[in-house]
């Protein structure tokens, strides 16, 4: 159960970060409203707060989070941007998730 909770918390964190970065992208690259910067800032604040909810050391959390971020970014590519991931995108995402699992759930000695 701890593992599933950790994975879902990382996924929520990744979505908050991606939204916080994607909205300014829409403003700067797609010519959309600068008002998008307000929810972008809120989303990035949520992202930072969500990272604090993990019970392990910050460095370990950040390292493991990177693996989930890669996976969620590829899902974003597909679901939001409408670009179908390649087999290489999917394989890389799975490797990143395995890396996250090793970092977060491996045995600890003191």
SSE inventory with pairings:
Blueprint: H1 2-30, H2 37-51, H3 58-79, H4 87-105
Description:
This protein has one domain. It has four helices and no strands. The chain has helices at residues 2-30, 37-51, 58-79, 87-105. The protein is flat.
DSSP summary: helix tally: 4
* Order of SSEs: HHHH
Unreliable runs, pLDDT <50, ≥5 residues? none
Q: Strand count, sense and closure of the main sheet?
A: none
Cα-based radius of gyration, to the nearest Å: 15 Å
N-to-C terminal Cα separation, in Å? 22 Å
Instruction: Count every beta strand, where a strand is a DSSP E run of 2 or more residues.
Output: 0
**Broad shape:** flat
Number of domains: 1
Briefly, what is this?
By secondary structure, the chain is mostly helical.
Question: Which descriptors apply to this entry?
Answer:
110 residues; mainly alpha; 4 helices; 77% helix; flat
């Amino acid at each position: 159960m701890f593992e599933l909770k950790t994975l879902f918390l990382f996924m929520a964190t990744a979505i908050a970060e991606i939204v916080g970065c994607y909205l300014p992208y829409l403003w700067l690259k797609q010519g959309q409203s600068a008002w998008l910067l307000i929810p972008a800032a809120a989303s990035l604040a949520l992202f930072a707060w969500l990272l604090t909810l993990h019970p392990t050391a910050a460095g370990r959390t950040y390292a493991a989070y990177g693996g989930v971020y890669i996976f969620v970014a590829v899902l974003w590519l597909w679901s939001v941007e409408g670009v179908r991931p390649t087999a290489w995108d999917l394989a890389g995402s799975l490797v990143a998730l395995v890396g996250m699992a090793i970092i977060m759930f491996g045995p600890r000695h003191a």
